[in-house]
Automatic annotation (TrEMBL):
CDD domains found in the cross-reference section: M3B_PepF
Keyword field contains Zinc: yes
Co-factor: note: Binds 1 zinc ion.
Organism: Agrilactobacillus composti DSM 18527 = JCM 14202
Pfam families in the record: Peptidase_M3, Peptidase_M3_N
InterPro entries, per the entry: OligopepF_N_dom, OligoPept_F_C, Pept_M3A_M3B, Pept_M3A_M3B_dom, Peptidase_M3B
Family: Belongs to the peptidase M3B family.
Enzyme Commission numbers on file: 3.4.24.-
Protein name: Oligopeptidase F
Length: 601
């Protein structure tokens, strides 16, 4: 009998393929000593409470002490987190992770006075304090706290709302428990003819199967389960929406969306522009869907036919060493300075490369202000992993530039701009591969990979964003968010997005019931805006548009020293206007046209 291949133990992985965490702390004993020091300083930080409004000097002292505490907390947190992620079966590092998580909560609790005390300083007094040269560095930091002052209630009211946090989270917690634990899925047949228990994870694999019967069964049986609980799931989603609307209303916002975007200082026109532009270009999605129908040779295209790869298995394969070399060639267009940091990451054991028993799945770039930008991968020799490498390295170099060009107070970047740096790298890789690969089969694969990514990020996430805004507005007008009401709207929305070539499968009207992002309060639109901005920026850079690269590097160095919208404007992308999206759709159309020609031969 053939021996089942086992993953190596952590101790069996060659050192060269592991990250070097001694760059953070030489030994675990050093970590433990620093952890105790941060604990002690956290106990002392409460002495600062009640002092911030006393004078400019007190405000400066308070802010610097709190930020210094957070800076050191992040360093111990990152060490424990990376140690735990490299082998989640290691009890010692599980303990470290639990300790730092608990400490992070304690620090957040102890410094919760920061914002309320700054907001309590009268405007004229604060203006006077800010004239002190010592506070010059912190002007934007303080402005980001006071920007929404009109929406902050008195301390007693804010305390009451904060205390109700667990109650407000009940709807999303209930959805999470039901979706991840309590839903019982049936058995289905996989590609090998084996019976497997369906789950959301298994569904993600089966819906990409080349066997249509496998896709159809998985699709229908998944939605049968959600259909049984549609009224419960409507109640949890309605509860979440009501929470968003209530909190926005009591804080004097016009809508839940206004509040959610104001937290990141994003004008609502960014959201509206995205929805308008995507709707204006739905004909491109309809064209892509029609191409899919033609290639699959189907009389009727169903929703379960949208994810099976059009071009079969990837015709490209890369070892990790080959991928590093290819990545550096692709990213050379970003200039020698950028490339020097890519080399630093690749050559100094900042990357934990291969899978081992107990290692966290997936991939990420992580670290803190005082550590290198580390990357966790679970390497497989394929083109998807090459894309993952350039994606995570995009985050890592962004972090490097930010930390080396900004003081700690601005040494991180907001979520709104985070994915732009990583996705720009992916788009640059796509452009490089299309310039260097001449085999029609390889080109077709790369084009389809890009188009599928565009479909899943810009079109699909904007569809979600439209639905999310619709249900918030409906609830605010007093409309009960029943399963029937939401399904009716979602079915029409889905038909509008995918067009006449896709059958109106009765199951798809329930898709709203299984999307965790609808519990994340106007989060999904950022995936679409980020991908659009990245498409625009990579196009400008690869075409050597004058000053495009300089502007891009300025964005990478900006951290959170400006609001996200201003940071992107400096990079050359005004996300309050449609131009960046128009450019992204032009690229999509060009590549769709090439794929249509290639596949018609």
């Amino acid at each position: 009998m053939a021996k089942i291949k086992q993953l190596p133990k952590r101790s069996e992985v060659p050192e060269a393929l592991t990250w070097d965490l001694t760059k953070i702390f030489k030994t675990d004993a050093d970590f433990e000593a620093e952890f105790k020091a941060v604990q002690a300083r956290n106990a002392q930080i409460t002495a600062v409470a009640g002092t911030l409004g006393q004078s400019a000097a007190s405000l400066y002292t308070g802010i610097t002490k709190i930020l210094a505490l957070f800076q050191d907390l992040e360093k111990v947190y990152v060490y424990a987190s990376l140690k735990n992620d490299q082998d989640t079966q290691n009890a010692k590092y599980q303990g470290y992770q639990a300790q730092v998580t608990s400490l992070a909560t304690a620090v957040s609790t102890n410094v919760a006075f920061l914002d309320p005390e700054i907001l309590a300083i009268p405007e004229a007094t604060l203006t006077q304090y800010l004239a002190d040269p010592k506070l010059k560095l912190y002007h934007h930091f303080i402005a980001s706290i006071t920007a929404n002052k009109a929406h902050v209630l008195d301390p007693k009211s804010e305390a009451l709302i904060a205390a109700a946090g667990d109650a407000f989270n009940t709807a999303s917690t209930t959805f999470s428990v039901l979706n991840n634990s309590d839903l019982k899925f049936p058995v289905v047949t996989d590609d090998q003819g084996q019976e497997v228990r369906l789950s959301n994870g298994v569904y993600g694999t089966l819906i990409e199967s080349s066997n249509r019967a496998v896709r159809k069964e998985a699709f229908e049986k998944l939605y049968q389960v959600y259909g049984q609980f549609k009224n419960t799931l409507a109640a949890t989603l309605a509860g979440e929406v009501k929470t968003h609307n209530y909190i926005a209303k009591v804080h004097h916002y016009d809508s839940a969306r206004q509040r959610a975007l104001a937290n990141n200082h994003i004008p609502e026109v960014v959201y509206d522009t995205l929805v308008q532009e995507v709707n204006a270009h739905l004909d491109l999605l309809h064209r892509y869907v029609a191409l899919r129908q033609r290639l699959l040779g189907l009389d009727t295209l169903h929703m379960y036919d949208l994810y099976t790869p059009l071009t079969g298995q990837a015709p490209l394969s890369y070892t990790f060493a080959q991928a590093k070399a290819e990545a550096k060639k692709a990213l050379a267009v970003l200039g020698p300075d950028y490339l020097s940091h890519v080399t630093e990451i690749f050559d100094n054991r900042y990357i934990d490369v291969v899978e081992n028993a107990g290692k966290r799945s997936g991939a990420y770039s992580g670290g803190s202000y005082d550590t290198p930008p580390y990357e966790l991968l679970n390497w497989q020799d394929n083109v998807n992993n090459l894309y993952t490498l350039v994606h995570e390295t995009g985050h890592s170099v962004h972090s490097w530039y930010t930390r080396h060009n900004q003081p700690y107070v601005y040494g991180d970047y907001p979520i709104f701009v985070a994915e732009i740096a990583s996705t720009t790298n992916e788009n640059i890789l796509t452009e490089y591969l299309l310039k260097t690969q001449t085999d029609p089969i390889v080109r077709a694969y790369i084009l389809n990979y890009y188009l599928d990514g565009f479909k899943g990020t810009i079109f699909r996430q904007t569809q979600f964003a439209e639905f999310e805004h619709f249900i918030h507005e409906a609830d605010a007008k007093g409309q009960p968010l029943t399963a029937e009401f939401m399904s009716d709207y979602y079915g029409k929305l889905n038909a509008r997005y995918y067009g006449p070539n896709v059958a109106n499968d009765p199951e798809i009207v329930l898709e709203w019931s299984r999307i965790p992002h609808f519990y994340m309060n106007y989060y999904v639109y950022q995936y679409a805006t980020g991908f659009g901005a990245a498409s625009f920026l990579s196009d400008q850079i690869t075409k050597n548009v004058p000053k495009a690269l300089d502007k891009y590097l300025t964005y990478l160095k900006s951290g959170s020293s400006k609001y996200a919208i201003e940071t992107m404007q400096a990079a050359g992308v005004d996300m309050t206007k449609a131009d960046y999206l128009t450019d992204a759709f032009a690229i999509f159309e060009t590549r769709l046209t090439e794929l249509e020609k290639l596949l018609s031969k």
